[in-house]
Write a structure and sequence with these properties.
The complex is a heterodimer of chains A (about 375) and B (about 120).
Chain A: E1 11-17, H1 21-32, E2 37-41, E3 56-57, H2 67-77, H3 81-85, E4 96-100, H4 103-118, E5 124-127, H5 128-134, E6 144-148, E7 152-153, H6 156-169, E8 173-176, E9 180-186, E10 189-195, E11 198-207, H7 212-218, E12 226-236, E13 246-249, E14 255-258, E15 264-268, H8 273-276, H9 288-299, E16 307-319, E17 325-328, E18 335-339, H10 349-362
Parallel strand pairs in A: 1-2, 1-11, 2-8, 4-13, 11-18
Antiparallel strand pairs in A: 3-7, 4-6, 5-6, 9-10, 10-11, 12-15, 12-16, 14-15, 17-18
Chain B: E1 5-7, E2 23-25, E3 30-31, H1 32-40, H2 46-53, H3 66-77, E4 96-97, H4 98-102, H5 105-116
Antiparallel strand pairs in B: 2-3
Helix pairs in contact in B: 1-3
Classes of the chains: A alpha/beta (about 375), B mainly alpha (about 120).
Chain lengths: ~375, ~120
């Protein structure tokens, strides 16, 4: 077969397992420093959760352990990322409104806002009237909202592919259609990556393969309590520009925003997804889109007449305590972990790539504090 | 089973063609030149090109352009069409208004009764 291009290249300074936004961004940062990088991806570039999420670039309602990553990105990376990558990532910083319809909702939102304020993020509560001034399309039922003016969104597809293209331009090599099965140690250090195309070798291995990471790192005695979860997103027809804010609700009825393209991206869960999905591929569930639509119309009655064009599902790696693992594994020297992002990894991915570059090259993350995201933090509750 | 594909820094410059301005995906107005340039920049499958350029993501979901895009990609890459991957058809296929999707079983009963009365 003349077109069958089996690789000659089976080693690198760093092997990255996973060609999503984390893997592509880390490959870019490392290749830019002159490190030889080989990225192994099971399917295609951007084919997992990186290509299926709704693109939130959010700091509000984040756990304080990952807030430094979120805030660093909004301050130092996202505003100039399109220029940096030479691809329009459609980053828009116009604020996030998290809506409440009952007193209990407002109480919950106030608590979240207070937690974030304590660590220096500008999040405040606004009245229903103030929220409607910011975004005039919402129902009179909205009693109040939390408002984070520096939150925003970006296009996860062009961002991931932008990182991929930039990594290629700095000499990173990507192999797709190859499945990493496990890792192996040589003289006490992780060195071998076993794949369905033989053994690959590297001085350092970064595992950022979403839920699949767990089984891969299990082969060298590392475990992280992470499960698969399904979520769905749909996209509407293109509409004239209406508003730039990212929307969410206290009860997570739905989330979403209008894209630069004009369509709205709206996502969420039915609440039954644990029981209706068999996790086989990426099927959409009959319950989910109707459930989301009922939530949307409750908050935005005028959306009742808007057309839905496409609906898809994605799986994310849900960590038992809701934040990722970003760390070097002490018991497996040479191994760096970046997974369990729990459905909110995209917005912090540019910052994560800086932390990963430093963890891999210097042994610790100096620029951004990731000390709350260690792989050995898990213990029984009492 | 995805085919093993190696991607490295592009060696050649983009070579324009006379019909690069031709629109291939009518819904999203994506041209042949944009698709060819994406290949030159390192994209290798139909799915990647779709995510990057939106071709096949519009109202018809590629019913018009899918086969054309696969042929362009195959010629650019010298790759047989079966190795270029496919894009996924998404529900609801035809645009559906939210009101229609939002109806619970109870609501639907009401609508039918109303229609009969």
């Amino acid at each position: 077969m003349p077109y069958h291009n089996h690789t000659e290249k089976k080693s690198a300074d760093v092997i990255v397992i996973g060609g999503g936004v984390i893997g592509c961004a880390a490959a870019y940062r490392l290749a830019k420093e002159g490190v030889s990088v080989l990225v192994l991806e099971k399917n295609e570039i951007c084919s997992g959760a990186s290509g299926r999420n709704a693109g939130g670039v959010r700091q509000s309602a984040r756990d304080v352990r990952e807030l430094p990553l979120a805030m660093y990105g909004v301050k130092h990376i996202w505003p100039a990322l399109s220029e940096e990558l030479g691809v329009d990532v459609e980053y828009t910083r116009a604020g996030n409104l998290r809506l409440g319809r009952t007193a209990a909702h407002l109480e919950k939102l106030s608590e979240l806002a207070e937690n974030s304020s304590k660590v220096g993020l500008d999040v405040r509560m606004v009245t229903g009237g103030e929220a409607r001034e910011i975004c005039p399309y919402m129902s009179a039922d909205v009693l109040g909202a939390s408002w984070c003016p520096t939150d925003g969104y970006a296009n996860p597809l062009t961002t991931t592919i932008g990182f991929y293209k930039k990594a290629l331009s700095y000499g990173a090599v990507f192999i797709t259609g190859i499945t990493a099965i496990g890792l192996g140690k040589v003289k006490g250090r992780v060195r071998n990556v076993y794949t369905d195309d033989g053994v690959y070798e590297a001085d350092r291995v970064l595992v950022c393969a979403g839920y699949a990471s767990r089984a891969i790192v299990n082969t060298v005695g590392i475990d992280v309590p992470v499960e698969r979860e399904d979520e769905e997103v749909f996209v509407t027809e293109q509409l004239p520009p209406m508003f730039d804010q990212v929307l969410g609700t206290a009860e997570a009825d739905f989330y979403g925003h209008q894209t630069k393209h004009g369509s709205f991206l709206l996502g969420g869960v039915s609440g039954l997804q644990h029981f209706t999905s068999n996790h086989d591929g990426h099927p959409t569930e009959a319950y989910t889109a109707p459930s989301l639509v009922r939530g949307i119309i409750r908050f935005f009655p005028s959306f009742a007449g808007v057309k839905i064009i496409r609906n898809w599902s994605g799986q994310f790696d849900s960590c038992v305590d809701g934040v990722p693992v970003i760390d070097n594994a002490a018991e497996a020297p040479g191994l760096t972990l970046a997974f369990a992002f729990t459905g909110h990894g995209f917005g912090i991915s540019p910052s994560v790539s800086i932390a990963l570059k430093e963890l891999i090259m210097d042994g610790n993350s100096k620029t951004i504090d990731v000390s709350g995201l260690k792989y050995d933090r898990f213990a029984a509750k009492q | 089973m995805a085919k093993i594909t190696i991607r490295m820094k592009s060696e050649g410059a983009f070579l324009p063609q006379a019909d690069d301005d031709m629109i291939v995906c009518r819904c999203e107005e994506v041209t042949k030149g944009e698709i060819r340039r994406a290949v030159c920049e390192g994209l290798r499958t139909f799915g990647e090109v779709k995510r990057y350029l939106r071709c096949g993501m519009g109202l018809c979901q590629g019913q018009t352009c899918q086969r054309l895009i696969l042929q362009i990609l195959s010629r650019e890459l010298g790759t047989p069409i079966p190795d270029l991957g496919r894009i996924t058809g998404r529900t609801p296929v035809r645009p559906v208004v939210m009101q229609e999707l939002s109806r619970s079983t109870e609501d639907s009963k009401g609508v039918e009764d109303h229609a009969l009365s």
